[in-house]
């Protein structure tokens, strides 16, 4: 009897092993994937310098596509993954190029929090419908997420305080801001960006100082014509989604998240509930919140990876989870500019 039980156990483990490997990656015919690859290259304008580079990138593309297909084939997934502009990059390459958040190691700054006594907020809110969010931008192969996050929050409060939605310059921050952690494409921090805008007495428009996705020398002539100004910034109390909700209900807010997982790289649609930790490495902007048709509460987030990623450049991330840090650490480190 013991021998039969052991054989049955071995059989069950073998079946589980096969199932697990199929959900991790699904082998697809090479010809089928190559056809997808050629179409993808045309769609995103990818041209490789050598045949060897094209072949090596195809291997990465194939692995990514197989993982995406396997994930989407699994039942009851609340969100989907998709082939986007980053499909020929390994996760390590992608993180190195796009996730440039650099949080200082010193003690976090303590500020006032003007929304602490807020008692009533809308059940759902989308600052896009209020005209306080500019179209999705693309940081390119530059670790300037911190600049895009800070600028989006500044654009939002400028609209709310002046009635004018102005696309402001991330490149001015990349080139001119060297406040503590801010090092252009090598990474930076939203709060340092806010401090730069205050000390600089404003920030100019994107039209005046356009984005190049590369480090450059500070153009003081372009910098000298500010179009928007802030007086300072405040931090949202850490690890408190309720307080974060109070802030987002009143203005777009810069938030730090852990965006290192494969599922985040290829997020396509739905409410993201995916695997992620709390190693904060990416700056984005919370521009609203709501509840999906299945009842899942979410944060509405503006990213800076172009419109091919996510829901036309945005992502809905699960809100109100058990962990006080929030999904991907979204409640750990949030701040907003004040006017």
TrEMBL record:
One of its GO terms (molecular function) is cysteine-type peptidase activity. PROSITE patterns: THIOL_PROTEASE_ASN (PS00640), THIOL_PROTEASE_CYS (PS00139), THIOL_PROTEASE_HIS (PS00639). Residues 1-25 form the signal peptide. Residues 37-94 form the Cathepsin propeptide inhibitor domain. Keywords: Disulfide bond, Hydrolase, Protease, Signal, Thiol protease. GO terms for biological process: proteolysis. Gene3D superfamilies: Cysteine proteinases. Pfam families: Inhibitor_I29, Peptidase_C1. Residues 121-338 form the Peptidase C1A papain C-terminal domain. Belongs to the peptidase C1 family. This is Senescence-specific cysteine protease SAG39. It comes from Capsicum baccatum.
């Amino acid at each position: 009897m013991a021998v039969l039980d052991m054989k049955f156990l071995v059989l069950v483990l073998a079946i589980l092993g096969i199932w697990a490997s199929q959900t991790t990656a699904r082998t697809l015919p090479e010809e089928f994937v190559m056809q997808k690859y050629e179409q993808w290259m045309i769609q995103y304008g990818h041209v490789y310098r050598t045949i060897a580079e094209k072949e090596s990138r195809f291997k990465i593309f194939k692995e990514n596509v197989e993982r995406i297909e396997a994930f989407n084939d699994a039942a009851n997934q609340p969100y989907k993954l998709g082939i986007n502009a980053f499909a020929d990059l390994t996760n390590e390459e992608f993180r190195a190029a796009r996730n440039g958040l650099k949080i200082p190691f010193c003690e976090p700054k303590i500020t006032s929090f003007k929304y602490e006594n807020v008692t009533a907020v809308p059940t759902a809110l989308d600052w896009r419908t209020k005209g306080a969010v500019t179209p999705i931008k693309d940081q390119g192969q530059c670790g300037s997420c911190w600049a895009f996050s800070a600028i989006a929050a500044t654009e939002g409060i400028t609209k709310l305080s002046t009635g004018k939605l102005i696309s402001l310059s991330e490149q001015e921050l990349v080139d001119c801001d060297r406040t503590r952690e801010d090092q252009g494409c090598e990474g930076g921090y939203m709060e340092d960006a806010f401090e730069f805008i205050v000390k600089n007495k404003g920030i100019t428009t994107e039209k005046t100082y356009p984005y190049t996705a590369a480090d450059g020398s500070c153009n003081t002539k372009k910098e000298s014509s500010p179009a928007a100004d802030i007086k300072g910034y405040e931090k949202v109390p850490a690890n408190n989604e309720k307080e974060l909700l109070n802030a987002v209900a009143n203005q777009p807010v810069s938030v730090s998240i852990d965006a290192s997982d494969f599922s985040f790289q290829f997020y396509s649609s739905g409410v993201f509930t995916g695997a992620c930790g709390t190693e904060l490495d990416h700056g984005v902007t919370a521009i609203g919140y709501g509840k999906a048709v299945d009842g899942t509460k979410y944060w509405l987030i503006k990213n800076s990876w172009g419109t091919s990623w996510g829901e036309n450049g945005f992502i809905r991330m699960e809100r109100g989870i058990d962990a006080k840090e929030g999904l991907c650490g979204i409640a750990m480190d949030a701040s907003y500019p004040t006017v």
